[in-house]
Specification:
Blueprint: H1 2-11, H2 25-28, H3 37-50, E1 54-61, E2 67-73, E3 90-95, H4 104-118, H5 120-127, E4 130-135, H6 140-144, H7 181-193, E5 197-203, E6 213-217, H8 220-223, H9 225-245, E7 251-252, E8 265-266, H10 275-280, E9 285-291, H11 297-333, E10 338-345, E11 351-364, E12 371-388, E13 391-398, E14 402-405, H12 410-418, E15 424-425, E16 430-444, E17 455-469, E18 474-477, H13 483-490, H14 516-529, H15 531-543, H16 545-548, H17 551-559, E19 575-577
Parallel strand pairs: 3-4, 3-5, 5-9, 6-7, 8-12
Antiparallel strand pairs: 1-2, 2-4, 6-9, 10-13, 11-12, 14-18, 14-19, 15-18, 16-17, 16-19
Helix pairs in contact: 1-11, 3-4, 4-5, 4-11, 9-11, 14-15, 14-17
């Protein structure tokens, strides 16, 4: 069924692919060529020159030096880019070539855009209800770095781009930390459009199975509130049913970790470093299409195109309900007393998933002499296997009235500005009650990860105190539409917090020290004048034999409890305000 549908799609992929001027580079080839950056942009420009319904807009720069392009497709009542977010229609945003070697969406989106504007009988009524926005190629630097070998596990196309961008960043790890121009420009586009639904096109890695299309989508528990329930119980079943009827039975991304998936697998938890995790912070449902790497390229492009069609058709009928739930969740989020900031999979509550797989076995390796995993394509099966898609909250925080960011942390303030966060700049000095974190311990990765030494484990303590707000300091109120992003960015233990991404690492290093032979006299004076300190000091020596034998550790204990010790060390500079300025 799948193979025949693919053939039909490419034999006559709607009537316009038969006219040479409207055929895409992919269609003009034998189905094994993908458009490069120049030809893709030129094609969209050609469409824009011949249709009032499609515009191609130049947006912010990327690390490559080239700007991002944004294609906007509407009905005959074309809406200006600046007015999209306020338009009552549902907004669909499609992102392509974040990994340019995974180019299926590049070619599928070009033909999709063409047919949206020319095949009025099929699409005009849908565009009455949905605005379609397309980023033709997000990772322009990687798209320009074409080769034929780096996608070692992938069956076509013949030539493609490279995963890393011009600075060798994996852009699908950069949405929260925002190191690249690409991510900053994406944020500009995202907040300008405020899309209701987001699709990021990819190609999978991992196990072998019969499915052409899998998806990595917003995790229902992490998306939370009414939106997570709606996506899981209503939207996704309809979307997957439509894909199955179209000949592409679709399941969630096969997250098997290099093992055979026969015994089940867990849903991928998309933290905000990833595109769909990032969009979820703004109550936008996100889906990554993950076509199967070993399927022929024409078949993968066809599956991606069908997914775009089915998503559009579903949004045309479900869009108003989706928008209503988004608005309600935005209001409900900041009215909660506490909110989750981390999740972990619950392996005690599996659901069942209809999986179309191949029998897997261990055979002798002709290369290593050991055993290797082999999938037998002559032994297909359909089984219901365990699927672990229930996540429980592992960390939560009470919501403050807002956060105070000292004016010196302008790089953090700038990141919040890029993401359209509402902030108040203090003009007159004042004092407000707040909670302040102290960093008790941090465990970081020993090797660089996307340009950072990510903090995997953090322990905090918290004290309540009155904090001084000075002119230029910034207050971020929690009662706003961007509240969930604010919490993820500023709560240190959130899964992709700015603290974890090293934005505050200077507070982890002491700047002033003491010389033991000098501080001895000060330490003796402290012990003679402070009964509680003397009691705590002696108790620790009695309870800790290592401490009792370590002169430097004893002096350091007293130093850290003296007025000599710097206040900034291990003090998280962002305060959790209990009241807001009046």
């Amino acid at each position: 069924m799948v193979a025949s549908l693919s053939f039909l799609l490419f034999a006559g992929w709607y009537c316009y692919s038969q006219e040479p001027q409207w055929s895409t580079p992919f269609e003009r080839s034998d189905g094994w060529e993908t458009a490069d950056y120049d030809s893709a942009i030129a094609y969209y420009q050609q469409l824009a020159d011949n249709s009032d319904q499609l515009t191609i807009n130049t947006m912010g720069k990327t690390d490559s030096g080239f700007p991002l392009s944004l294609v906007l497709v509407t009905d005959e009542n074309h809406v200006a880019l600046a007015d999209v977010a306020s338009d009552p229609r549902t907004v669909l945003l499609i992102n392509n070539a974040i990994h340019p070697g995974e180019s299926d969406g590049v070619d599928a989106s070009m033909a999709f855009a063409r047919d949206l504007v020319f095949d009025t009988e099929r699409y005009q009524s849908l565009l009455d209800n949905v605005i379609v926005a397309i980023i033709p190629l997000y990772n322009i630097g990687g798209a320009l770095n074409r080769n034929t070998g780096t996608r070692a596990n992938q069956n076509g196309p013949r030539e493609y781009g490279f995963r890393g961008n011009g600075r060798n960043y994996d852009l699908n790890r950069d949405f929260m930390k925002c190191d690249t121009r690409n991510a900053k420009s994406f944020a500009q586009i995202f907040h300008l459009l405020d899309p209701d639904f987001f699709i990021d096109t990819h190609v999978s890695n991992g196990a072998d199975y019969q499915h052409v299309m899998t998806t990595s989508q917003s995790q229902k528990d992490k998306l939370g509130l009414s939106l997570g329930k709606y996506m899981h119980s209503e939207f996704e079943p309809k979307l997957f049913a439509a894909m199955k009827q179209a000949g592409y039975p679709t399941i969630p991304y096969v997250n098997a970790g290099g093992a055979a998936p026969d015994n089940g697998f867990s849903q991928f938890l998309e933290t905000p470093r990833y595109s769909t995790g990032f969009t979820g912070l703004f109550q936008t449902i996100g889906y990554m299409t993950e076509t199967h790497m070993l399927k022929p390229y024409p078949q993968r492009v066809a599956a991606t195109r069908v997914f775009l069609d089915q998503a559009l058709q579903l949004l045309a009928t479900e869009g108003q309900k989706l928008q209503s739930i988004r608005r309600q969740d935005r209001d409900d989020y900041h009215q909660q007393k506490s909110v989750p900031i981390a999740w972990e999979v619950d392996r005690n509550q599996p659901t069942r998933l209809e999986f179309h797989g191949y029998e897997a076995k261990q055979v002798d390796s002709k290369v290593t002499g050991g055993k290797r995993l082999l999938y037998d394509r002559d032994a297909p099966y359909i089984r219901n296997i365990p699927y672990f898609n229930h996540y429980t909250v592992s960390e939560s925080v009470t919501l403050p009235a807002g956060y105070m960011i000292p004016r010196e942390w302008h790089t953090v303030i700038k990141l919040l500005q890029i993401n359209s966060v509402k902030m108040l700049t203090i003009t007159d000095q004042l004092t407000l009650p707040a909670e302040v974190y102290r960093i008790e311990s941090v465990e970081s990765r020993s090797a660089p990860y996307e340009g950072h030494f990510f903090h995997d484990h953090i322990e905090l303590s918290k004290v309540r105190e009155d904090v001084l707000l000075r002119p230029g300091d910034v207050v971020v109120p929690i009662r706003q539409d961007k509240a969930r992003y604010v919490v993820e960015a500023l709560e240190p233990k959130a899964m992709d917090s700015l603290f974890r991404w090293n934005r505050f690492d200077t507070v982890l290093q002491r700047k002033e020290y003491f010389s033991p032979y000098v501080f001895e006299a000060t330490a003796a004076k402290l012990l003679s004048e402070d009964d509680k300190l003397r009691k705590d000091f002696n108790s620790k020596k009695e309870a800790d034999s290592v401490f009792a034998g370590d002169r430097r550790a004893q002096l350091d204990f007293l130093y850290k409890r003296s007025h000599n010790y710097e206040k900034a060390h291990l003090r998280y500079p962002v305060a959790r305000l209990l009241d807001l300025p009046q």
